Amino acid sequence: MKIDRLVSIIMILLDKQRIGAQELADKFEVSPRTIYRDIDAISMAGIPVRGTSGVGGGFEIMPEYKLDKKVFSTADLTALLIGLTSISGMIRGEELIHALSKVQSFIPADKAKDIELKANQISIDISPWMGNIDIQPYLEIIKAALQENRLLSFTYIAHHGIKSQRTVEPYQLVLKSSHWYLQGYCHKRKDYRLFRLSRISGLQILEKTFTPREYQKPILNFAEMAETLQSRIKIRIHKSIIDRILDFCSYNDITPEDDEHYLVNFPFIENEYHYDILLSFGDKCECIEPLHIRAEMKRRIHNLANLYKN
Questions:
Q1: What is the C-alpha to C-alpha distance for residues 292 and 310, in angstroms, rounded to an integer?
Q2: pLDDT digit string, tens, across residues 170-201
């Protein structure tokens, strides 16, 4: 019997005049029999729940047990609903269902339409447009391992395609820049590592548990480091890709050259990731300077062209 579910049912009963067993069962994804057992437990705890049968029947709590819902403002409830509904799209589970039910139970009837309208004005969808179909089930596996302090085993593909088998103590799920990561203590490296879920395969939750050690949170803000490593290069772009360029810099970095082209003061670090960004713009982008980066782009384009000669 889940305490969270019992609390959520109490909150719903405090809010509603009457609700049926089947409606509760559907909301919490359990059987009506389970709901009846939950209602018995709530009654035994001293909360007067009464049931009525027939059409329009269901469970209800005596009116004097109604809760004062003024503890949360309209803005508070709207913010909570936006946050919970956005994350529930990717991470599913009973705890989120219960949390949503609790928040919804605080919404006064005369404010319901206004709060629903305001909550719908902002939509946060963190699910990808397309991509690795394993991410969703992997999130559920990792979440279970986090809750039970169980080891995870998986194959990981690191930089340059290097593949290795890892056993990891999971400590945190991280969503950063639309990508999911697992922060954990890697037994192979004997240190904390941040693993990108899209590079994980064969993820398994092991029976073996672990005693949590002193946790080191991952460093997720690289702004200062990027400023140290970054330089600015000059590129010429066709106007057709200016929308893509604006994902990496601002309008202040762009000046018109002629009716068809722009010159861009482009942020750049000399690594594979940033060279791949330039290459992704195809023939709509030309590196002007510095000359050594222009030469490296020519070399990479030459190698790419050689792949298609035959």
A1: 29
A2: 999 888 877 889 999 999 999 999 999 999 99
pTM: 0.57
Q: Are residues 198 and 141 in the same domain?
A: yes
Residue 177 — left, alpha, or beta (φ > 0 → left; ψ -120 to 50 → alpha)? left
DSSP 276: H
Do 59 and 75 fall within a single domain? no
Q: How many other C-beta atoms lie within 10 A of the C-beta of residue 128? A: 14
In degrees, rounded to 5, the angle at the alpha carbon of residue 267 between the alpha carbons of residues 261 and 269 is 130
How is 54-121 classified by DSSP, letter by letter? STT-EEEE-GGGPPPGGGS-HHHHHHHHHHHHHHHTTS--HHHHHHHHHHHHTS-GGGHHHHHHHHHT
Token pair 């590129």 is found at 235
Q: How do residues 65-119 score in pLDDT, each as one tens digit?
A: 555 555 566 677 677 676 666 665 555 556 666 666 667 766 777 777 877 777 7
Cα distance between residue 7 and residue 9, in whole Å: 5
CATH of the domain at 177: 2.30.30
| Residue 130 domain-assigned (yes or no) | no
Q: Domain tally for the chain?
A: 4
236 and 296 in a single domain? The answer is yes
- Does any domain span residue 73? yes
Kind and range of the H or E run holding 176: strand 163-176
Angle at 10 between CA 64 and CA 53, to 5 degrees: 80
Q: Identify the domain containing residue 283 by its residue range.
A: 224-307
Q: Rounded distance, CA 164 to CA 73, Å?
A: 51
